[in-house]
Amino acid sequence: MNNDTSSSQWTKMLPLMLCFFAMGFVDLVGIASNYVKADLNLTDSQANMFPSLVFFWFLIFSVPTGMLMNRIGRKKTVLLSLVVTLFSLLLPLFGDGYTLMLLSFSLLGIGNALMQTSLNPLVSTVIRGGNLASTLTFGQFVKAIASFMAPYIAMWGAMATIPTFGLGWRVLFPIYLIIGVMATLALYGTSIEEEPIEGKASSVVDCVKLLSRPVVLLCFIGIMCHVGIDVGTNTTAPKLLMERLGMNLNEAAFATSLYFIFRTIGCLTGSFFLRVLSNRLFFIISVAMMALSMAGLFVGTSREVLYVAIALVGYGNSNIFSLVFSQALLSDKSRQNEISGLMIMGLFGGTVFPLAMGVAADAMGQQGAVAVMAVGVAYLLLFFFRMKK
């Protein structure tokens, strides 16, 4: 690749990385649900409705978004997703009532479903070499920066250590709204040539039929487990610290940031390791770390054990999405849009897991929620052995 081509590629990648940052806005739902729970005196099951609702829309919109990309292109679909996300961030400026927040998180989920379905294939349009997995991992690193910043911004707002303009913890929303506008303008002004789609347009049935392929189905369930563990840790970690260490919410919010700090480190280092280690080896190392973390979260009663466990699951889960997603995309390059839609539909795991974890937590405390996440880790271990063939 000559210097001009390399320079042009990086010029296009910078706005895309800003879009990955905007993709991370969805992870604010974890800490936001805890603050809304405290503000409105909700139960665990009621509070977990917020992350569940966000990820419910992945089930509805992911596959149609794959078909929409075939019609209007990947870049326009990403722009549409950003506009929907901006509206979701605007609503909480008018209050934090239960219905208003449900509507906001619904729009956040819809926008993120559109974005995650279209942004990853758009990256594959720009990255022509064999470094798709490592590039997607670097995008996840940028996304994780937005994720771990959210609890800090909300905490600073709640404690009035930054100007909040009467919004309290909700100052998080206008800050991310401004960044979202910047991402939208940057992508709009970037020229990206997309290859025309050959053959007839796929229907919803054609897309779903792809799940009959073992590799696609295994990857689909793998992504369900990945995002279930991700959202589950995001929402459960602060509750664990409050339940076992007697912390208040502002103190326990650090748990969510700790998770995303190590997830961020994992994405950054993973983009290097994936260039020097085989995908399979790095995958099993990641799953082993997550298994250790589940044991620590289940039995840990000290601050040190719980913090180490949260850090382990953050690092271990950081690269699972990129490894599974890239394998699915490369299994059939002629159906990447449709497969992308299916894989992002797997983020519906972010609905299934929090609902199950909320019920389990109400029944037996946060140990029940951890047990539900451990099921996802067990599947990823089985996934490794099945994919080995």
Could you describe the 3D structure shown?
With 389 residues, the chain is mainly α. It contains 17 helices and no strands. It starts with a helix and ends with a helix. The relative contact order is 0.16.
Within CATH, the superfamily carries the name MFS general substrate transporter like domains
Please tally the β strands and state the result: 0
Radius of gyration: 20 Å
Q: What is the 3D shape?
A: globular
Which percent band covers the strand fraction?
Answer: under 5%
CATH architecture: Up-down Bundle
Tally of individual domains: 1
Derived from helix and strand composition plus strand pairing, the structural class reads mainly alpha
For the record, give the distance between the C-alpha atoms at the N and C termini, rounded to a whole number.
34 Å
SSE succession = HHHHHHHHHHHHHHHHH
Which CATH class? Mainly Alpha
Work out the helix count: 17
Average of the residue pLDDT scores: 84
CATH names the topology as Growth Hormone, Chain: A
Summarize the main sheet: none
Unreliable stretches: none
Approximate helicity band: over 70%
